[in-house]
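Usage example:
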Amino acid sequence: VSEDELQERDDPSGETDAYALDNRKVGQILGAVELGAAERLDELLEPLHAADIADLLEQIAPGERRDLLALWSAGIDGEVLSELDDSLRAEVIEYLPADVLARAVRALESDDVVDLVEDLEPPQQGVVLSALEEADRAAVEQALTYPEYTAGRLMQRELVMAPAHWSVGDAIDYMRAEEDLPEQFYHIMIVDPRHKVIGQVALGRLMASRRDVRLTDIMDEDFVPMPVTQSQEDVAYAFNQYHLITAPVVNEDERIVGVITIDDAMAVLSEEAEEDILRLAGAGEGRLSDGILETVRRRFPWLFVNLLTAIAASVVIAQFTGVIEAIVALAVLMPIVASMGGNAGTQSLTVAVRAIATKDLTGSNALRVVRREAVAGLLNGLAFAVIMGVVGVLWFGTPVLGAVIGIAMVVNLVIAALAGILIPMGLERLGIDPALASGAFVTTVTDVVGFFAFLGLAAVLML
Amino acid sequence: VSEDELQERDDPSGETDAYALDNRKVGQILGAVELGAAERLDELLEPLHAADIADLLEQIAPGERRDLLALWSAGIDGEVLSELDDSLRAEVIEYLPADVLARAVRALESDDVVDLVEDLEPPQQGVVLSALEEADRAAVEQALTYPEYTAGRLMQRELVMAPAHWSVGDAIDYMRAEEDLPEQFYHIMIVDPRHKVIGQVALGRLMASRRDVRLTDIMDEDFVPMPVTQSQEDVAYAFNQYHLITAPVVNEDERIVGVITIDDAMAVLSEEAEEDILRLAGAGEGRLSDGILETVRRRFPWLFVNLLTAIAASVVIAQFTGVIEAIVALAVLMPIVASMGGNAGTQSLTVAVRAIATKDLTGSNALRVVRREAVAGLLNGLAFAVIMGVVGVLWFGTPVLGAVIGIAMVVNLVIAALAGILIPMGLERLGIDPALASGAFVTTVTDVVGFFAFLGLAAVLML
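Running the assembly step on the lines above writes:
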């Protein structure tokens, strides 16, 4: 991005729209596409950052995308490809002439190529791999042997190593002479003769030191080595927790095989948080660029699970049709108890799911947290029992109805709080992602308990 | 952290517990505290990373925390203080002897001191500020004049600048001679005589270049300057979107006043995602270290809003008591329609809220997304209409009841999808955080529409 371009986007008046592609620019681009004005299109796209071009391709309609690519396919480079959402990448690669594709992928670092090809179908994967030079292809194929979502997939193999006996001057001379340094690197890895990392030196530190200082005297020994099979979630956690910029990736023999830099860890952190949010809402991996059928397909399963939950609640209600026929006010008030339980359960459950993800909920505080949730549920339950008791009496003039709804509220809010914390903890222990499955279980519990407590109490006290 | 320490935590068998403090270690630490064994405590805490010590303090009970601090207060350094959760920081600072506190804060970079003092009450803030040296205090006080949650608060003032006419050799000689380089830096900022940034040079690039190369020949002009008043959310977005490592912060005259590095942006990104998740669930800024009353206080408002929503739904039901008395099966089935609507609404709303946060939902695709949501809602509505129609007939043997619930389902799922996308977009336009308020509005709509459609149709078709 040129600076003018950014100044424009940084317009201090439109705070929330800083950096978003503005409508006017999108309109100009689509206008050029419609007119088939290839030169004008180049001119408009040239100053944009690859990430913004990728966003543009995701946001426009499929027909517009086809036309834009037809007119501009020569302009697509590796960076745009690697910024694209997985769901669109295969489609875009289809459009690219073989030579454009080859040029695009050859310009990328190995970790970006891995990221690019790992979600492609075998025929397209083959096309991309065959565009690479022999050594790079071998490196990418090696990376693909590591399980998905692990440090091995995330790392770049390009790194700068130095033996422990080198001085600052040796390292600088080596880097000056080396033709093929990584495009981005912030640390030199200090290794022993078996390529085991013994420390890392930040480039800033190297810069500040005299040529005759030994690397081992300025190296940082508080580095965090990551096993190649470490999950990407744990990699991102470690970067955020320990403020890492670079971390060495090591194989089972503790030999260094690559490095991960913070920008990749940041992308993972943001994806993982996104995934948790969408899973908690039962929206799967939903994306705005999904088509209608894709959207239906992603949301149906959760709605179906919810239907089963709701039917379970209905079965409970069906046991009490006699009371409802006698006192129809129960039908009016009964959704309130269930809904309050559902919401209280969701609060506890969300806090628990995130605390598990951020490793803040552990064996050492689990008991205390469960107790806190139960007592907090009890106190909020009491508060709402009083409020709803009064509402019940004022609305229907029946003190015993007020008592029934009040007691049911206390019971359901305590159960909701406990279910909200115990269910995610249990699922986590069973190795099931608590973000994915907790919601359905918690709602079932709060619906069933809510209707049963309210209607059951009414049957006992009011009939 | 020492390497052994990390090897232990990286135990490949306990994947999900990589990096979490293990129970055994916590037990040993609390054991030492109980025995008053100060030396043993030092020995146990010394190898831990400041972030892990902060987590430990957050996870143990308040009494244990008090005892630990009493025994170990001399060991607390600036890093532990700056890793601590805001809610605990004031409490911990209370315990520290003045000299320990002074030593701790003097060791921090200016951005960390700002982060440390901004949430403290004035008396404590004064104590910390007065512990700083004159120049540092002025710098921190200057930073505090910028609004909270902006680039100005986030940036560090320590940076390395070079004039445009320097060569690589000049820059290296300058850095060697300079006593007071920032502790961490990855780029040199190239500035014109008025301190306007014209490019930045990555240290790796500098290393790889000959001494006589001019900085302007190797500088990167695609840097992203951030105005001091830029919101921290937009700062984090730009780092993630453009894969930045360092960004210059500029004042209204475009002079550079500081830099932001990616590790701080990553922390913001993770906080903002966390905030969205908790707000969507109505759990406020809830944290596991909150006490019981704090938890009650944070959750009550959302539950109260939900109560009003639920009462609104009850008022709708109250209009149809005649139908319910006549056909009690309606009371049994009615929560299903409302609950399906609520869930479908939450799915759309979550996708919309996140798309707004990640700037993927913009003027150029809003219409298409709304259309997609409506059609997806219609299709899922039709699918569940058929399923529930059949269930209704099989369960109660009344075909018209099946038709009523089927039609109500279609209506509610379409409305849910539209409300889920239009309400967050509307709130965003009004300047209200859609994560905070959308849920209550959407549930109100789906409850009211769900009960009204189901019971109203029943009144028309079945009475």
